[in-house]
Amino acid sequence: MNALLTSVSVSNEVGYPILDAATRDLVGYAPKHTTNDLEEMIAAATAAQPAWATLGHAERTRLLNLVADDIEEHAVELGQIITAEQGKIGGEGEARGAAKWLRSAADAVLETQVLADDGTSRSELHYVPLGVVASIGPWNFPVMIAVWHIAPALRMGNTVVVKPSENTPLSVLALLQFFIRRLPEGVVNGISGDRKVGAALAAHPRIAKIVFTGSTPTGRRIVESSANNLARLTLELGGNDAGIVLPGTNIESIADKLFWGAFMNSGQVCAALKRVYVHESLYEETVAALAERARKAPMGSGHDKSNRLGPVQNPSQFDIVLRLVDDARDRGARIAAGGEPAPELGPLFYRATIVADIEDGAALVDEEQFGPVLPVIKYSDVNDAVRRANGNDQGLGASVWGADVDEALRIAERLEAGTVWINQHGGVDPSIPFGGTKASGYGLEFGVEGLKAMAAAKVIRR
């Protein structure tokens, strides 16, 4: 029996069922909170915030590190819930990663900046708490991204109200237990509800900041909802990350990184490689190398650690993957690997798929697939590849692959994305700022810049 799961799961009379992404067995029942519950949580967070801020950075750091200790101690239990709800291979790894990111935010140092000091007057830039922060999270990395939101907010003296995705609420509510046990009452609050609750949270007049990770359409609705309360926003929205493989690249040397840059977590990563442009001289070799890896990657339940690819998390996303691949096939694209569900594994498994002979304008290229599918597009001129990569309205990440690093850097400078990787894709670090451009959102997370985003700048002159 998973005691941590038992602590957050409720009865079927007051909750809604959460199913195992791989087996579709019952995991537990998540609470069905209402807007009345939301009002109570926001009131509690508002009441607790001044005292939490008064504790000071050193004490908040100490307490957050104790929470990280608890997460690490219970990483196996928390990881089991993550794997069941989300379907990913290695839920324990996400839990331990969350502890690491929590420590990084807790220990980061944000110094007071001296703006001017001429001996007769002095101006300093300070960062002070905003108040109550709303965290609205996704289902692909439910625990990790919750910590990305919560940790810097708490570190800077804010209190938080956390709304997880309706698809993966139990793992986040379990995570929050560790904060609630260590921190003063009302500092951290978790609400499990539908979109109506999420909309009410975003529009609430007592919310000073909203941090959202999810789709671009939902992000636009949050912007609209926040107009009335003028809440500050950090939005990490959808990505349709492009990669460019330059001529002269040794494909065998990059093929593994190229493949897993696209297929980590079965492609359900905002900053995964979603479309790759390959020079015509390397095109067939690249398609063959990726297809080979797609056919060989072990797929199955995340509870079996020998697997590398899990299911698509939910039926709605599974239908998107089906539609995009079927549309590509109907357009005459070549399915080099996969291209169909894997019902023998479970209802939400889709075989790792490589699609070749496809162009911009196809839905699979222009839209974010967020699943185990990668379109490979041929180009002959590098300038044209850059133009096509930049032609999408999203700009979260991008990558350049090549033997000549200087040339790759020159191409990277021209790509419209918040992060551009060289000979890798999708790696993030708790000390390095991360955020998107264009329709992929705005604002920065992680490191010192992430702390600043959770605070109000205040100038003191004397």
UniProtKB/TrEMBL annotation:
<feature type="domain" description="Aldehyde dehydrogenase">
    <location>
        <begin position="16"/>
        <end position="459"/>
    </location>
</feature>
<dbReference type="InterPro" id="IPR016162">
    <property type="entry name" value="Ald_DH_N"/>
</dbReference>
<dbReference type="InterPro" id="IPR016161">
    <property type="entry name" value="Ald_DH/histidinol_DH"/>
</dbReference>
<dbReference type="Pfam" id="PF00171">
    <property type="entry name" value="Aldedh"/>
</dbReference>
<keyword id="KW-0560">Oxidoreductase</keyword>
<comment type="similarity">
    <text>Belongs to the aldehyde dehydrogenase family.</text>
</comment>
<protein>
    <submittedName>
        <fullName>Aldehyde dehydrogenase family protein</fullName>
    </submittedName>
</protein>
<dbReference type="InterPro" id="IPR016163">
    <property type="entry name" value="Ald_DH_C"/>
</dbReference>
<feature type="active site">
    <location>
        <position position="236"/>
    </location>
</feature>
<dbReference type="InterPro" id="IPR015590">
    <property type="entry name" value="Aldehyde_DH_dom"/>
</dbReference>
<dbReference type="InterPro" id="IPR044086">
    <property type="entry name" value="LUC3-like"/>
</dbReference>
<dbReference type="InterPro" id="IPR016160">
    <property type="entry name" value="Ald_DH_CS_CYS"/>
</dbReference>
<dbReference type="InterPro" id="IPR029510">
    <property type="entry name" value="Ald_DH_CS_GLU"/>
</dbReference>
